Amino acid sequence: MTQDAIIETRGLVRRFGGFAAVDGVDLTVARNSVHALIGPNGAGKTTVFNLVSKFLDPSEGQIFYNGRDITNTKPADVARQGMVRSFQISAIFGRMTVAENVRIALQRPTGLSFSFWRADSVLDNLADRVDELLDSVGLLDWRDRPAAGLSYGRKRALEFATTMALDPELMLLDEPMAGLGQQDVVRISELIAEQAKNRTILMVEHNLSVVAELADRITVLARGKILAEGDYKSIAADPAVIEAYIGDDID
């Protein structure tokens, strides 16, 4: 495995019946970088993402995380090693308050994740960190409201806060800007940039303005294969990438 790589795949293949959604992908994600996966619809981006995060098993190939072969590792075990992902659809506990959603994520490293019947006083030491995380995503004023009542953009911000609460070494963000208004896009972009200062981020994202602003390296997928890799300037000028997008604006 490359010395400065946190994630590396070798000959990654995923078939659904006779269709290869991912076909021989060799992906290397450098440590302490923001790496984006982009491509036209049906390119295999989400499948690669699901393979790397272990929500799918490969038909062929290997996946390495921090030099360890995780090809056959379960998602929960990978998460315990420091790889945490978000989803396109916000994953929160709607009946819990906003603060409780963040607190339950903070409880995991303490070993109290499933201690639902403990007195609140036992968890008081987490309160400051809960408020700090909520403030960072603009949700402090909503801390005591049920999460189900949040707008879509605020639900995405809450999910980001719970992801940060787990303090992962590697954050995998699946279309973090999907469905967000411009104000929320700006806020989440700033949060990603801040988090990228001390951890690695791998993201699938359709908003190419966000990709241009945040990504150190971009992998372009088409028909399940890597079409091009590089920084945004080189990707945007690549004739093969432009043709694959069939007129989509990547400037």
Commentary on this structure:
There is one protein chain. The chain is α/β, with parallel strands linked by helices and 251 residues long. It is 32% helix and 24% strand. The chain is built from nine helices and eleven strands. The chain has helices at 45-52, 75-80, 98-107, 127-136, 152-165, 182-195, 208-214, 232-236, 239-245, and strands spanning 5-16, 19-25, 28-30, 34-38, 60-65, 68-69, 83-85, 170-174, 200-204, 217-222, 225-230. The longest helix is centred in the middle third of the chain and has 14 residues, at 152-165. The radius of gyration is 19 Å and the shape is globular.
Sequence-ordered SSE layout with sheet pairings:
Blueprint: E1 5-16, E2 19-25, E3 28-30, E4 34-38, H1 45-52, E5 60-65, E6 68-69, H2 75-80, E7 83-85, H3 98-107, H4 127-136, H5 152-165, E8 170-174, H6 182-195, E9 200-204, H7 208-214, E10 217-222, E11 225-230, H8 232-236, H9 239-245
Parallel strand pairs: 4-9, 4-10, 7-8, 8-9
Antiparallel strand pairs: 1-2, 1-3, 1-5, 5-6, 10-11
Helix pairs in contact: 3-4, 3-5, 4-5
